[in-house]
Amino acid sequence: MSATRKAPMPRLARVAADEDHQLVVTWAEGDREGRTETVDLAPLIFTLRFYRPLRENLELFKTVRLIDNGTAIAWGDGEIDMAATSVERLAEESMTNQDFRDWMSANKLSYSTTSAALGISRRMVAYYAKDTPIPRYIALACQGYEAKRQNAWALPD
């Protein structure tokens, strides 16, 4: 029987509200340990009714703080909270401009071939490669492209 090492649960060291429902988080434990990154919470906040007060009140959103030793975050009086695992999932679905350039390079894609692969204009590829924030759907499309590319090379058992 082989033992597999299980990654520690994500735990946050610091959290601060940024802008437009984004947080700047620093990870204390988990796969992202030591990283500081901006995470867009809008996909959850604008989908789940539970988070309605946060989408209607940016001042409330700015009250974010760590709870439960960093395994969760909370707002206001603590009635609204979110697990660090949810924040981690959203972080995994995001992409920086450097991540985008690295993805293009790893897949040996030019601006034109990236444009064709993602179904966007070459101009938007250039913007994303430079400094325009990467929308979640583009980050997910890149992940899907990568997964499909890797599966195409997988050998059957």
Question: How would the blueprint of this fold be written?
Answer:
Layout: E1 11-17, E2 22-29, E3 36-40, H1 42-45, H2 52-56, H3 58-61, E4 65-67, E5 72-75, E6 80-83, H4 84-92, H5 97-106, H6 111-118, H7 122-130, H8 136-152
Antiparallel strand pairs: 1-2, 2-3, 4-5, 5-6
Helix pairs in contact: 6-7
Low-confidence parts, pLDDT < 50 over ≥5 residues? Answer: none
CATH architecture of the largest domain: 2-Layer Sandwich
Estimate the strand proportion. Answer: 15-25%
**How can the largest sheet be summarized?**
3 strands, antiparallel
Domains counted in the coordinates: how many? 2
User: What is the fold named in CATH at topology level of the largest domain?
Assistant: NE0471 N-terminal domain-like
Strand arrangement, major sheet: 1-2-3
- The share of residues in helices is 40-55%
Mean model confidence by pLDDT: 90
Structural class: alpha+beta
Describe the structure.
The protein has 157 residues and is an alpha+beta fold. It has two domains: 11-84, NE0471-like N-terminal domain (NE0471 N-terminal domain-like), CATH 3.30.2020; 97-152, 434 Repressor (Amino-terminal Domain). The chain has helices spanning 42-45, 52-56, 58-61, 84-92, 97-106, 111-118, 122-130, 136-152; strands at residues 11-17, 22-29, 36-40, 65-67, 72-75, 80-83. The strands form two sheets. The protein has a three-stranded antiparallel beta sheet, with helices on one face. A three-stranded antiparallel beta sheet has the order 4-5-6. Helix 6 packs across helix 7. The protein is globular, with a radius of gyration of 18 Å. The relative contact order is 0.12.
